[in-house]
């Protein structure tokens, strides 16, 4: 039976991607599109890609307030929330109390510790829900996602960092200390709102690091999930970079190899971990490229061993708006509802 869904925060980049993917999904029916600042505007004016689809482009973005969640429950069964942190928590709490399943794309439910959340984001409006949320990375939390009522879609940088490293830590192929993660993201990761540092002339010909030396908010999320994989506390050095393209993340991680570890063992550990899901493990001599996964719900991971330095180089490419956000949110919902991971999701990148 088709599931009726809504999107709160449909006017941003992740919201726009959700609209695109939900409309193409055979088991989901888009019943509600909500926004804050752009409420009342025609969807075709806010998201011009919907023009020409009469049943879609002429809809009006509706205003959402947490107190209206009860009314929305008569229209939808699932809501994707794509709001800033804290606002998503308030919306999610109200929607859950109204009996609606929630898939949240903010950071509000990704961290299990309220203290850690508040260190990085401030006061949490719905602390009691942290213990109920399931981290929506299907390749690592499949069993927990079954029939979950609250799903926390992972961040884009964490997805590209966790996927190549988790199998190695779980298998004991690398040391859990001294991990270094270098990530480069397209400018769409900064969101749709204009800012000087994401203005085209300031990004198109250069590349820069930002939020360095342990100051990026995705860091505790990465450490939380890698610690789960390693079964002991893990601390990483994480440096994100803004790269001169629109979509995609390329992450290169460096981990000290345990004695005897080979690159093929790393690939085998990843293949075993990712027998189910939307992760492709590339063969020997191949390295990921963001262009190969542009618009795709898949992740590409690869491994090499620097024998001279005794370091495993673990790489991952994703589309930050797809596997790094909206497509992964739908993948998690697919698993939650008992569907195949890739149902309704594009798995071939838009190339070139």
- What is the helix/strand order? EHEHHEHEHEHEHEHEHEHEEHEEEH
Intertermini distance:
37 Å
Shape designation: globular
CATH structural fold name of the largest domain: Dihydrodipicolinate Reductase, domain 2
Number of helices: 12
* Cα radius of gyration in angstroms: 20 Å
Biggest pleated sheet: 7 strands, parallel
Q: Which structural class best describes the helix and strand composition?
A: alpha/beta
- CATH architecture term of the largest domain: 2-Layer Sandwich
- CATH-defined superfamily of the largest domain: Dihydrodipicolinate Reductase, domain 2
Strand content: 15-25%
Low-confidence stretches: none
Roughly what percent helix? 25-40%
**Which strand order do you get reading across the main beta sheet?**
3-2-1-4-5-7-6
